[in-house]
Design goal:
By secondary structure, the protein is an alpha/beta fold. 41% of the residues lie in helices and 20% in strands. It folds into two domains: 78 residues, Endonuclease III, domain 1 (Orthogonal Bundle), CATH 1.10.340.70; 115 residues, 2-Layer Sandwich (Nucleotidyltransferase, domain 5), CATH 3.30.420.10. The protein contains eight helices and eight strands, in the order ββααβααβββαβααβα. The chain has a five-stranded mixed β-sheet, with helices on both faces. A three-stranded mixed β-sheet has the order 1-2-3. Strand 1 and strand 2 form a beta hairpin. The chain binds zinc ion. The site of zinc ion (ZN) has 6 residues, from helix 1 and helix 4.
Length: 214
């Protein structure tokens, strides 16, 4: 059975390939004599002499399934394996807090221009308290007020700011039975709260643009 069509201004009678012989034709056109050409060239090569319904779909499928082509395929961004599960922390919730100070937030004079930010290491629970200034006394008071609800953590991660390394904060930590862990200087990536602070700053700046007077 033939199918008549016009190719390059000439009438061509193409053989209609029965279903049982199609796979052999695709293998021949792509693999054995086709040197593993792409879908487009394989399709062209078959289309000159043969006619099959759903030719495009079948050729795409058979080229994709070719084992040799798969092994030599370029690596694209689609081949990146997504990280399905992050690093799961086995520590109990509220046993390790990151603490850091944020501010000054505004250039103009504001009542609360700074904030102390807390982040739980396990459940990533964030908490921020606005402050008028970042003295050690204010920081200790806010730590105590949060830990009244969440229980005192066994360890706290901080940077080397004066209000955390000071005598008052050290004595406060000693009395409540909490071990401070100070980050290496000039390595803020050790303190994962920095990411939270960035998010908070972006939130505050967006709200401040919407309500500039309040
Ligand atoms: Zn191939």
């Amino acid at each position: 059975m033939y199918h008549r069509t016009r190719i390059l201004d000439r009438d061509v009678d193409r053989i209609v390939v029965p279903e049982s012989r199609r796979q052999a034709l695709y293998d021949l056109a792509h693999g054995q004599v086709g040197c593993h050409f792409s879908v487009h060239k394989t399709k062209q090569r078959i289309g000159l002499n043969f006619m099959c319904p759903n030719l495009v779909r079948d050729v795409v499928y058979s080229c994709k399934c070719c084992e040799l082509c798969q092994k030599r395929a370029r690596i694209t961004y689609r081949d990146c394996v997504p990280i399905e599960v992050g690093v799961v922390s086995m520590e109990p919730v509220f046993s390790f807090f990151y603490v850091d100070c944020m501010g000054p937030l505004f250039n103009s004079k504001a009542q609360y221009n700074c904030a102390i930010v807390f982040l739980d290491k396990t459940c990533r629970f964030p908490h921020a308290v606005p402050l008028s200034n970042l003295t050690a006394k204010h920081c200790c008071e806010d730590m105590l007020s949060l830990w009244q609800f969440t229980d005192v953590p066994s360890r706290v991660g901080m940077d080397n700011a004066n209000n955390f390394t000071g005598e008052l904060t050290r004595e406060f930590m000693r009395r409540i039975g909490c071990a401070p862990i100070f980050c290496t200087p000039c390595h803020p990536e050790a303190n994962s709260i920095e990411r939270t602070i960035d998010t908070l700053k972006s939130l505050i700046s967006k709200v401040a643009q919407e309500y500039p007077r309040s």
